[in-house]
# Entry
Amino acid sequence: MKSFATVLLGLIGLTSKALVEKGRNCVDMLTGNAAFTLPAGFLASITTACNVLEQANEEVLFFGGKVNYEAKRVAEGVLSDLIRELAGYVQAQSGGDATLILSAGFNYRKKAGPVEKLAQVANLRSEATKFQGTADLRWNVVRSAQNYLVMRNAVNPDQEDAWELVGYTSRASLVVTSLDSAKYYWFRVQAIGRKGLLSPMSEVIKVLAA
# Structure
């Protein structure tokens, strides 16, 4: 039976220092890694977040104080969110290949091959939002789904190579940011199950960014 590996984040219980080390290791492993295509500047953003958290750690160590502790907390959240987003890219582009996941600096869980089916993501829709350059996407929860991959196309929905991953979430909603205001985009969503199962892709919707 074919196995399917899923990315293991491994963020729970990490100290700030260990979180920085994890971020830097992922950057090192993915720099020049031909198996993955990431958005321009994404790895640089992780490096910057590592630098910021490292500096925040030092300021807490030497000076203490509520302001420095809060800055450290915020820096931890920023870096953790970037690593989660990176895990989504790795999961989507690895195809469940454990070797590729390891090559990106992540550990993995190996799941058994398909034993059931996931339903197609249904009722994908866009809600009104007042924040410029965003799209607030919602969809119906898929039974047995653990996470969802959100794909965006800014060119033509029929052009398959123009689709790109913009979100990896455990919720049946996502606010997509960094869009061009008043521009149309197409979106689609795919569910991932507990055993590495992938649902059929949702219907495509066309959204005008706020």
Remarks:
- The chain has a mean pLDDT of 91.
- The chain has two domains: 4-110, 115-208.
- The two ends are 46 Å apart (CA to CA).
